[in-house]
Amino acid sequence: MNKGNLLQELEIYRSFLQYSDILFSFHSVDGDFTYVSPTSYPLLGYKPEELLNSCLYDFSHPGDRKKLKDICFAQTYERIKYRFCRKEGDYIWLETTLIPYSGIDEQRGFSCISRDVTNQIATEAQLEENKEMYRLLVENFQDTVGIITKSGHWIYINDTAKKLFGVTRKEEVIGKSIFDFIYAASHEEIERQLAQNGINGAFELTVSRHDGLKKYVQVKLIPTIYKERETFQILIRDLTNQKKAEEIMHRTEKLSVVGQLAAGIAHEIRNPLTAIKGFTQLLKKEDNNDYLEVMLSELERIEDIVSDLLILAKPQPSKKEQVDIGLLLDETVDLFRSEAILHNVEIFSEIELTTPFIKGESNKLKQVFINLLKNAIEAMPDGGKITVSAIRTNNEQIVVKIMDEGIGIPEERMPNLGEPFYSTKEKGTGLGLMICNRIIKNHGGTMNIESEINKGTTISVFFPAFSPPENMKKSPG
Fold first, then answer.
1. I need a labelling partner for 401 at 20 to 30 A (CA). Which of 35, 168, 240, 294 fits?
2. CA distance 367 to 352
3. How far is 321 from 342, CA to CA, in rounded Å?
């Protein structure tokens, strides 16, 4: 290469070093500056001559110094990010490529190619902070948030999803299909929404948990891109408690209507009903007609319905006393012995109560057990066995169970049991079970019904137990 070309090339290098925003520097193995490019002044606030013979490590942040020293002394090609103190006293982040070399007389050292990455690191830190903030928001969100593929397979779920689906680990859901957690009746709706990219907005489904619990939910699908794949962000809101509240409100409204209707019946129907029944009985004495017998039977049924309605319409004053549930059950079973024999039904009593007392009204409680036993006998038209049991549990409850071997109750009808004018019987009004439920609740108890078609029904009634002092142990009723 001739002298002119060499000078031209050197001028290019000088211009590059002069005007580049990249800092070039050479250092001894101890870190002392032996050369600094002019960029040091706009970048660091120091002129090149101010840095010569000073040590690189003295300008590095104490938190980064050891790491920087270790890399420099190792004499390996390395890239490092560290903080450098400018002349004004503030720190900037430098990304430096360290290149080891052996100089004249084999003196070792290294060169540095550095650039300012303060804004980049600040941006990365902000992004990381935002990422962590959004992660915390999503993980602690009260609704289930997840990501599913276009075919409906789970890629991600938040912690709330574990509660919704009844799992202990996210891995029990991730990788599986959303269809594995949804009732079959809702599959068609999910397929339609996936095909239409969720453009129809929110829709409702029923979630099927592994433990058998149902969850009523509202779902929204939002098309999104996740790791360069077309996916859906899925938002699931649990509506179970809301549905229960709406159901309670609906039932309350029904009760209110029943109460108002009952009050009207008491004043408008009972008097003419008594007159009609009286005249029908007179006619029957004069003419023993089969039709009149049917009329009297139906009139008596109407009277029973009116009586039930009156109980609902007008709350009765109560005076709760100590009641021996075991004795009360024995008396009730004895009342039904004859009727049970007529229907080819056997009643077995398994009452195991050492302390059989609760606080309540014996007449009202007897009404409950009479109604439940009557229902059990009617549920076995071909005869069978009824078991009446009572025990006291460790959590201070008395549990009474009436088990029959009858026709059972269809699953779809179970949620409506106890509602007014809803009955599984052909001529039933639904008021009997409704009144039982009200009496049980007034005694601080609860009722649970389990049934299987053609195998029978078990009604469990739970009462808070009462332990009276020794000198008060008596059994009224």
1. 240
2. 22
3. 35
